[in-house]
Amino acid sequence: MLPSLNHIILTVALQALREGNIHHCETMGFTYDEMNLLGCLSINDLITLSQAPLPLVDITIRHDVLQKLLASSHEENRRQEQLNRAVRLGGSIALMNRYFGVGSRETCARRRLLGVSVPNGRTPIPDEETDAAIWHQWQKISGRKH
Fold first, then answer.
1. Chain centroid, CA 51 distance in Å
2. CB of 50 within 8 A of CB of 10?
3. What region, left, alpha or beta, does residue 133 occupy, with left being phi > 0 and alpha being psi -120 to 50 degrees?
4. Residue 24's pLDDT is what?
5. What Å distances lie between residue 121 and 31, 38, 101, 107, 125, CA to CA?
6. Domain that includes residue 31, residue range
7. What tens digit of pLDDT does each residue of 38-96 get?
8. pLDDT over 90 percentage in the chain
9. Any residues with CB less than 8 A from the CB of 17 and at least 6 apart, and which?
10. Whether 104 and 68 share a structural domain
11. Are residues 71 and 36 in the same domain?
12. Residue 92 belongs to a domain
């Protein structure tokens, strides 16, 4: 059975009171008299109030805020997908930092999470023969002659 909204509100308020966070209870809308009464509730009183058929609070949907949050959520999901794709394609730590603002720690964690292995150290510099072959291939692909 899911806890009722009343139960959740009362539990949060009692926890805040127990921690001495009266300001939190004020922002929830409780008066000082109500806070004093809540602090004196027995377990039976709490159960009775929690099971009351009338809700203690009214909830309204702020549609403008919901729309902004949904858009923000979609953008963040898209960003995460782009980050993961860049990692899967072998994006370097420098690239991840420059284009996504992600540090080496997060890049390495993503690599581990996605099962991407990257050899340690610098990328080896090709020998002269391999370098020439790469250059000729590039000329052929790009249609350039130098």
1. 34
2. yes
3. alpha
4. 96
5. 63, 62, 22, 16, 12
6. 5-50
7. 999 999 999 999 999 888 888 899 999 999 999 999 999 999 999 999 999 989 899 99
8. 70
9. 25, 35, 38, 39
10. yes
11. no
12. yes
